[in-house]
Amino acid sequence: MIDNLKNRGQWATRMGFMLACAGSAIGLGNIWKFPYIAGMNGGGLFVLIYLFCIFAVGIPIMICEFAVGRSTQSSPVEAFRKLTSKNSFWQIVGWMGILSGFVILSYYSVVAGWAMHYVFLSVKNFNGATNPEVISGFFGALYSNGWVNLFWHAIFMLLTISVILGGVKKGIERAARWLMPILFGMMLLLLIRSSFMSGFSQAVSFVFSPDASKLTAAGVLEALGHSFFTLSLGMGAMLTYGSYLSHKTDLVKSSIIISIMDTAVALIACLILFPVLFTYGMSPEAGPGLVFKSMPMVFSQLPGGTIFAVIFFLLLTLAALTSAISLMEVVTSFFIDTLGWKRKTATLLPGFLIFLFGIPSALSGGALSKFTMLGGKNFFDAMDYLSSNWFLPLGGLCIALFVGYRMDLSLVKKEFKENSIFAKLFTPWFYCVRYLAPLAVAIVFLYKIGLLKF
Ligand code: TRP
């Protein structure tokens, strides 16, 4: 093991750590994905089940990741080695995390690129278009234009790399301390704007009143899968952020606050999007194109719509950036901790490789649209499907099993209870980690393989 603790960073403040974690958690998953899956699953009851998954599975696993990271002060591969042995099987969990980070960032950057492109389209007011077909046509045109996708993908990767080059304190923490307050401010502004719309009360009852008729078993499983993605769990991102943490911090309290912030943003995103949809008589079941196809259309009809459209897509870009940073840091910290590289090389080389690996995703709507895998999915969809449906839940399951059964119990207790106002919750938490979380993920897997049917 190469011991180069000096090469590693540390958070300067607890606030910085919290904002960086919130920045990782709050991303495209909250603003782009959550509203449309909530919409497709009928709202209320789905939201309730999602909240349950966050509290019963998500928060307990986040605490596990922080505990493994902080107790070893190492990135995933080294962390599992330190807690077991150099050739232990558990380090595979770390390797899988690095692979997931690599894969997720490669296509995440392409979606972030769309958000950036839409900032410019909004500034240009979509060339004055007001017709829904013309406006949704912008998305199709962008999706199939390989060069434009490549251009924004490159720009977004450069942005991410430049933050990571700055290191933990001067890069990640500083970016989070600046960007997160801006992000919260923008959300508040958009929320105030949409609360004046006539569809607001309809949106509130859609999001908060349970309606069982639209919910399916697949929807319940989707809620669980999404709780991993949205909290950045299952690939060692939170583990890595926890490894830059001192022993003064209350892990349990931090996990709860971060998760509440993440959930609040997802719900507020619904309250920003749905009123607009209801006001203009559009369906909340529009699917993945919801944000890119209908938001601009709606903005084009509102007084002052342009400025709100610009703010909305900037918000999406910033949220994506602080998440991408955490994905990149997992990869970079591996090269620093395990191979002993300098941060500069450990950022530039993998950053460039991730850019290259993202090229087929950037071209998936255009030149490579006929290239399919995994039963008809294009490269972009296949990467998204593989990582969020398989890698992350599998990683989360392994981390829960590791902390529940393999890690030294006294160390687990120490990490959980140290300076924690929630020390009394150890037993219920450990119960979730040992039984509830693994069971929930196992059910999802059995269902997906087709061994379990509802
Ligand atoms: N949580 C982010 C979102 O909601 C995405 C993300 C960032 C992520 N880092 C991650 C997902 C690590 C899984 C693992 O958009």
Topology:
Elements: H1 14-25, H2 28-40, H3 44-72, H4 76-83, H5 91-123, H6 132-144, H7 146-165, H8 167-195, H9 200-208, H10 217-230, H11 237-242, H12 251-279, H13 290-301, H14 305-337, H15 343-362, E1 372-373, E2 377-378, H16 379-406, H17 409-417, H18 426-449
Antiparallel strand pairs: 1-2
Bound molecules: tryptophan.
What does this protein structure show overall?
By secondary structure, this protein is mainly α. The protein has one domain (5-448): Amino acid/polyamine transporter I (Up-down Bundle), CATH 1.20.1740. It is 75% helix and 1% strand. It is built from 18 helices and 2 strands. It has a two-stranded antiparallel sheet. Strand 1 (372-373) and strand 2 form a beta hairpin. Helix 3 (44-72) packs parallel to helix 10 and helix 3 crosses helix 16. 52% of the residues are buried. The chain binds tryptophan (TRP). Tryptophan binds at residues 24-25, 27-30, 104, 229-230, 232, 235, 237, 323, 326-327, 392.
Strand content: under 5%
Global morphology: globular
H/E element string?
Answer: HHHHHHHHHHHHHHHEEHHH
Distinct small molecules: tryptophan
How are the strands of the largest sheet arranged?
Answer: 1-2
User: Mean of residue pLDDT?
Assistant: 91
Helix content: over 70%
Return residue spans where pLDDT drops below 50 for at least 5 consecutive residues: none
Largest sheet report: 2 strands, antiparallel
What class do helices, strands and sheet pairing give?
Answer: mainly alpha
Number of helical segments with 4 or more residues: 18
Number of domains: 1
